[in-house]
Amino acid sequence: MLPNDCAHPRPSTGQETAGETLPQRQGQDAAIRSEQLFEGRSTLEIEHEGCRYFLRATRSGKLILTK
């Protein structure tokens, strides 16, 4: 699970690429950049335990998950 520190995102180094994953932290799963998930789309459909969810990226850079 990702830490809840998105109110203060890490500054960009300018060297990240869309296919790059974030460094894995001890005891945590690897993080994936949202650009990898969305692949240029604004909505992503997720199936989880038989239910369908939609993850939407807003123009202001926020993520909204709905069922």
Write the layout of secondary structure elements.
Elements: H1 34-38, E1 43-48, E2 51-57, E3 63-66
Antiparallel strand pairs: 1-2, 2-3
Region (Disordered): 1-29
Pfam families: hemP
Biased composition (Polar residues): 12-27
Helical amount among residues, as a percent range?
Answer: under 10%
**Number of H/I helices:** 1
Radius of gyration: 13 Å
Termini distance?
20 Å
Decide which structural class fits the backbone.
mainly beta
Unreliable spans are 1-5
Q: Overall mean pLDDT score?
A: 76
* Largest sheet geometry: 3 strands, antiparallel
Beta strand %: 25-35%
Order of adjacent strands in the largest pleated sheet:
1-2-3
What form results from the Cα inertia axes?
globular
How many β-strands, per DSSP? 3
Q: Which sequence of SSEs, written as H and E, runs from N to C? A: HEEE
Walk me through the structure.
The protein is mainly β and 67 residues long. It has a domain at 39-66. Helices cover 7% and strands 25% of the residues. The chain is built from one helix and three strands, in the order αβββ. The protein has one helix at 34-38; strands at 43-48, 51-57, 63-66. A three-stranded antiparallel β-sheet has the order 1-2-3, with no helix packed on it. β1 and β2 (51-57) form a beta hairpin. The longest helix has 5 residues, at 34-38. The chain is globular and about 30 Å long. Mean pLDDT is 76; it is low at 1-5.
